[in-house]
Every structure is written in structure tokens, then in C-alpha cells.
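chain below, 458 aa
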Amino acid sequence: MKELKCPKCGNVFQVDEDDYASIVSQVRTSEFDAELKSRIAELHKQQQVEEQARVAQVGQAHQKELSEKDKVIGEKESEIARLKAQIASEDDRKKLAVGTAVADKDKLIAELQASIGQKDQALQIAVLKERQQAKEAAQAKDAEIAALKSQAQLAASEASLRENGIRSELEGKLQLAKSEAALHEKSIREDYEIKLKMAQEQVDYYKDLKSKLSTKMVGETLEIHCSTEFNRVRPLFPNAYFEKDNDASGGSKGDFIFRDYEDGIEYVSIMFEMKNELDETATKHKNEDFFKKLDADRTAKNCEFAVLVSLLEPDNELYNTGIVDVSYKYPKMYVIRPQFFIPLITLLVQTSKKSVEYKKKLIVAQNQSIDVKNFEQQLLDFKDKFGRNYRIASEKFQKAIDEIDKSIEHLQKIKDALIGSENNLRLANDKAEDLTIKKLTRGNPTMKELFDNARDQL
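prediction:
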């Protein structure tokens, strides 16, 4: 900001840089125009003076020049005559030189024409030579083309023979590959039949095992399977917690709880429920029958996700395709078959790890919020205590003031009593001073007589 002072009123005001630059430009332009006009006037005036002086000088110089011109004219005329004579002699010399040059040119032209004729003959001879060489080259090329054609025919015959050999060789290899493929297919079929037989035997074994197990044992077998699968990949989760849920204080409990940590911060937690039943069980359960209990267990144990590992409804294509998200019924709930147990844990861990930084920031923010709340609470406690102390002090102060007022009132009464006593004493003193024997004996002849006798005896 710039400060400007008005030359008339003397007021000082501020302008920004743009306004100041505009004002300066206007001032400079006006001053420049005025200076330019005055300078032009001075130059015009000076030019007139110089023109007058120049005219005077030209007049004088003209007179002198006229006298000198007459002298120069005479000299010029003599010089012109001399130059005319010199020009005439020069013209004669030039005519002679031109004639000599024309003769030389004619001679040179004749020589050039003779040279051109010789060159035309040489050119015709060279053209004939070139034609002969081109003809010989064409004949050589024709011979070379014929040789190449014969070589090409020979190469074609050799290629045909080679192609027939290669075709026969490839046909042999193809027959060999077909036989090998047939053998390989037979081997694969035999391996498949063996594996199918083994799988059928395993299915029969498990069916027999299920027939021998109770329903509770079937569920525990699934739990053991999941526990074994997790312990097999536990090195992938070094900080993870995976244990059975044994806390039934809320009236219900899940099967397993999974929690994983990073830098001491829990970033993922899963409540697992394993469900299976015998094929011969009369009352078949559905997966939906356990959603409500699983969600309640997840909420009670403060877990983020809920997963039902189920072998129920084995013919349901929805649950056989993979991981089924049922969060449309209960939040963050999934239903899987046992083979997806580890993949789902890995998927949820990798997805939740992205939120660790946000959880750290959230913890910091919560701690800051707690600090602010503690500060506010301490401030409120201080205000309450200060207010209580102030109220007590104010009450005591008011009580002291009331006591002082009472004391002042009591002292005022004492003061008034003392003032009244002083007045009475003053009146009594005045009366005492005004008391005389004469007043005492007035109207009392006996006392008057006694006082008179006493005075006479004195």
C-alpha cells in the first residue's frame, strides 16, 4: 500500500500498487506532454532564428559564389574543349580495338566449330561402343537366365523328392504319435478308474464311519478337520489367535474364534460355526437355521465376521459353487464348504490388512478424543469445585457482611444511646449550673429561713 497526501485538503489516503501505478503513469504522461510541448516550442523558435541566420549567410555566400562561378565557368569551358579532343582520340582508339576484337572472335568461333565437329564424331563412336557393350551384356544376361532356369528346375526336382521324404517321415511320426496317444489315453483311463475306485472306497469308508458315529461326533470330526487345516498353514499367520470358543457365559457359544494382529492392533476377527449331520438323520437341517445363532455369537464375542462351515444341504448348488455371501440377511456373514476354509481366512486377512493404517489413525484419534474428554472432565470438575468453593465463600462473605451490618446497627444503637446519655448529662449539667439557693428556697419559707440564718452566721 502507498500513502498519498492531497495538496489541497492535506488528507492522507492509501492506494494499492495498481492504483498508484496508474496515478504515476497519468502524472508522467501529463508532465511529459507539457515538457514535450515546451521543448517543441523552443526548438521551433531556435529553428526560426537559425533559418534567418542561414538566409543571411546564403545571401552573402551567393554573391561570393557568383563571382567564383564566372571564374570557374571559364576554366570549365577550356577543360571541355580539352576533353572533347581527348574523346575524339579515344573514339578512334576504341574503333581500332573493336575491329581487332571482332577478328579475334571470328577466329575463335571457327576454332570452336572445328572442335565441335571433332566431338560429334567422338560422340558417335562412343554411342556405337555403348550399343555394342549393351548388346554383349544382354547376351550374357540371357545365358545367365538360362543357367538359372536349369538350376531352378533341378532345385524343384530335389525339393519334390525331399518333400516326399519328409511327408513319409511325418506320416510315420503321426502314426507313432497316434499310437502313443492311444497308449497314454489308456493309461490315463486306467489311472482314473483306479482313483475313482479309491475315491469310492474312501466315500464308502466315510459313509461307514458316519454310520458308526453319533451326530455330535460328526460335528467334532469337521471341527478337527478345520483345526488340522489351519495348523497346517499356521506359519502364514504368526500373530494369529485360533482357538475353540469355550465361553458360554452368554448362554451360547460358537465353535472357533480367529483373530489376527499387527503391531498389537487387532485388524480382523472371525466367529466360526461348523455344522454337519448324518445322511440317515430324519430331520434335515438347513444352513439358514443357524444364521441367527451365529450372528448372536459373533456380536457377543465382538467379532467382525461370521462364517458357517457347513456340509448341510449337499445337493444345494448355491452352497456347492464356492463362498456364499449372506450379508443380505446378517451383516458380514458367509457360508462355505470345508475346502474353502483356508482360502476364506486368507481372503479376509488380506482384505482387512488394508485397514490397519486407518485403525491406527482411528486409535490415535480416539486417544486424542479421550484426552480431550479427560481435559473437559477435569475442567468441569475444577469448575464445579471452584463454583462450590466460590458459593461457600460468597455465603460466608455475605454472612460476615450481615454480621457486620448487625454490629453496625448494634453500635449505632449504642452510639444513639451514648448520644442520648450525653444530652441528658448536658441537660443535667445545665440544670445543675442553673441551680441556685434562691431557686431552691423559692416557695419554701422554712428552707429559706435556714439558709438565711446560715448566711448570717457567716
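DSSP finds eight helices and eight strands in the chain. Confidence is low (pLDDT under 50) at residues 209-219.
thats it, cya
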